[in-house]
User: Which sequence fits this backbone?
């Protein structure tokens, strides 16, 4: 049976964040508000929980899950290296609507799907999400919807699609326009725009000082 917590009320928010943290540490799934759309999340280092997340979305490992972090410093322990381009984007857009793909640290014991040695990272600009992430650490998070269905802009929309596959729903109110994050791949010799979302390609290019082209 799922529990829903209204994070607009301080007492309910505190109770909900505690319940969500307990769920994540117990290999269960939570839905949380972010600055783009609602996300469904699990402990990034719990392979069983990540598989449960993919099952809840009716999606396979060929569509791997990204990772949300609660601080800039967390990234250094997750990636093989932090190139200057990545640091520039982090300083310009985090917390915010930009996801960065980098080679992950080979020592990490996680299974986010078929990532081919990479990880997509983002630090969301949402107080509820940040508080949970700073408590439990990096989380594997995907949009809170069944694959092929519209992304959830409210906790209720997420619950209608995901039901009891999720233990805790944190209701942070409507997310606004359901625009996804922009994704920039920094695993090659040149930056590649995998998806243009809230952050424009022009804004990314200005920070990096080079044109950022879509993947051909």
Assistant:
């Amino acid at each position: 049976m799922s529990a829903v917590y209204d994070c607009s009320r301080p007492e309910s928010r505190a109770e909900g964040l505690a319940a969500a943290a307990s769920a994540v540490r117990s290999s269960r799934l939570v839905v949380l508000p972010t600055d783009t759309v609602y996300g469904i999340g699990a402990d990034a280092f719990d392979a069983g929980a990540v598989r449960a997340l993919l099952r809840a979305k009716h999606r396979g490992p060929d569509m791997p899950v990204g990772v949300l972090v609660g601080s800039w410093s967390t990234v250094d322990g997750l990636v093989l290296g932090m190139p200057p381009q990545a640091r520039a984007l982090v300083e310009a857009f985090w917390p915010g609507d930009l996801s960065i793909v980098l080679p992950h640290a080979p020592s990490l014991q996680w299974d986010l799907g078929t990532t081919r040695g990479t990880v997509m990272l983002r630090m969301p600009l949402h107080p509820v999400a940040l508080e949970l992430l700073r408590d439990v650490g990096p989380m594997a998070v995907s949009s809170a919807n069944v694959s092929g269905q519209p992304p959830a802009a409210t906790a209720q929309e997420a619950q209608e699609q995901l039901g009891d596959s999720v233990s805790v729903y944190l209701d942070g109110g409507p997310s606004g326009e359901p625009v996804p994050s922009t994704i920039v791949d920094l695993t090659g010799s040149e930056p590649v725009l995998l998806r243009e979302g809230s952050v424009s390609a022009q804004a990314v290019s200005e920070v990096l000082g080079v044109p950022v082209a879509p993947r051909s």
